[in-house]
Amino acid sequence: MELHTIREKKMQDTLTVVLAGGIGSRLSPLTDNRAKPAVPFGGKYRIIDFTLTNCLHSGLRKILVLTQYKSHSLQKHLRDGWSIFNPELGEYITAVPPQMRKGGAWYEGTADAIYHNLWLLSRSDAKYVVVLSGDHIYKMDYAAMLEEHKAQNAVATIACMDVPRNEASSFGIITVDEQYKVTSFIEKPKDPPPMPNNPDRSLVSMGIYIFNMDILQEALINDAKLEDSSHDFGRDILPELIKTNQVLAYNFGGDKGRVAKDSYWRDVGTIDSYYQANMDLLEPMPPMNLYQKDWGIRTYEPQYPPARTVSSATGNEGIFINSIIANGVINSGGSVHHSIISSNVRIHDSATVSDSIIFDDVTIGEGCQLANCIIDKHVTIPPNTEIGIDRKEDAKRFHISEKGIVVIPEGYKFDQ
Among 317, 10, 22, which Cα is nearest to 143's? Predict the structure, then answer.
């Protein structure tokens, strides 16, 4: 029996819940018409593809995706790209919008989202629940984490990684003992506690949890009774479970599992962090390897022809330098440097694109100069338009991030 088949059988007692309902307001305007997990990434993917790919390669075959805000684009992507499992074998990826089973309110926290769907957990015969976020960029073998969870007889396991202490205040901070049992969980402290063996680094939660099914159900029911709870895993559920002395920390990026040990994990919650994670893919040796043959990132990709360059009528050659180019792109005499160009983009004569991210179905007119910008889908940029060149002029029309990235929203109409 092949290794991956054995792995899948081991994971049949596990239910996976992917939290994909956050507003993602800090990624506006990219999230004005779509959920954060549905935001395009890397020229051909959606952010949620990385979490679902990890599930696929880890042998997880029972997956609930809890959606909420502006979920149409996300649900369409799940339908088109992830209808790959066989329900007759008990496999599924199911999008679950708010059911209002616990009253009229929408999800009010990460734990509350699952509490509202306890009926789905109760219908499952799973012994373990893997809780994931659908809006992080990383590769991870969840099977190795589950094996350690079982071996250590933990009631809950938290995936963690160490980061510089001066960057840790935006995360949940974990402290552990010598056996890596969690002794405290502090949500986004102003003064993060250091690791015992390294005063310059802190151990942070990645928002990846494994629970015993019965423990999770009990914890969610108890938390729902508390009027002063924020119904959040980091603030409420985990601190209570830690008192049992059976919550384990799992160190991400160790020598376990099949995935390449790149230790890359990014929360792309802001325009600047999203932009930088895309630009990371253009490094000579990218910190995350998209080319690992046995860990390919799955997505839905329209059937466009291959990308090509064309000589323009003026004799200019289409040029791509250190860039990622998706299918269907035609570069007719333009110049593209250090950029990510998504499907079905048209680049016309003498246009220059540098340090930018261009989404699907964008047309860049003759003589345009684009730099340090993100262009969302279905935008036609008139000839000789400059974006990212004059910040003062850009600010009159567009959103500009703290680090100066100009964002043009989906379907934006320029004055002709």
Answer: 10
